[in-house]
Amino acid sequence: MDSNLQLWSIIGAAVAVSFGALGPALAEGRAIAAAMDGIARQPESVGPLSRTLFVGLAMIETMAIYCLVIALLLLYANPFVG
Amino acid sequence: MDAGPLAPDILFHLGPVPISRPVVTTWAIMVILVLGSWLGLRRARVHGGTFQTVLEIVVETLAQQMRDIIDRDPWPYLPLLGTLFVFLIFANLSTIVPGMRPPTGHIETPAVLAAIVFLSVHYFGIRSRGLLAYLRRYTRPNPLLLPLNLLSEITRTFSLMVRLFGNIMSHELVIAIVALLAGLFLPIPFMLLGILIGVIQAYIFTVLATVFVGAAIGGVESG
Fold first, then answer.
1. From CA B192, how far away is CA B188, in angstroms rounded?
2. pTM reported for the whole predicted model
3. From the CA of A43, how many Å to the nearest CA of chain B?
4. Is A51 in CB contact (< 8 Å) with chain B?
5. ipTM (interface predicted TM)
6. Does residue A62 contact residue B162 with C-beta atoms inside 8 Å?
């Protein structure tokens, strides 16, 4: 029973990280493409654009980090195992 | 990496108080920063030496960046936010010194930093706008949004903490796994990537704290 739970925890961690990386990766690609487009049109706006881009990327990346934290909780601090 | 990334890393006991590795690293960084600033500005002159000029360039650049973000005089907020940035740079980059672990790779240090940002944002907001005007900010644009505004206060602080912790800790974990698999030379490009991650995360943490302060004092919209 207990090893069964551990097995499913590992599978759950893998699924959480893989699907949690999918969405932010697509979103970050779109954000960077839009920023590149803006810089190509207006090269003088690179300063505020890249600052906003960094903050936005951090916001998007947070979702992937949340999934990573869930996976680590499952692996190292699972409340139902041991 | 024997006990997992979430377990505390106790070095020694000071009486009944356990002292963990992040605490020791944090105090070492604080000693370095305080001694460096004291040595650089002990005899500050108008035409200073090399080290004083370097410190002045750092402070002026930070002030200029903050002025761009919050659109007003950054000097009241520079002591907190600038120190945050410099400390985070040193803390994140301490991973390249052999034998040192970045204190931000354990959950406690980012939690304390995010709590400091959380409390000081309210302090700056109330000091610059007054208590009632600051509290009225939560009912904008509509009093129906009050629960959501309160919730966003909590979630943005939480995500500030988890972002820094998750990035630095996952980088440590990747290095450990790669070193376990491939031994000597393969971890080096990952370590170079870690320098980039450390600097970017310090920048992002500081920029977000600045944006929160700017939103509280009314300079920019809240993020």
1. 6
2. 0.84
3. 18
4. yes
5. 0.70
6. yes
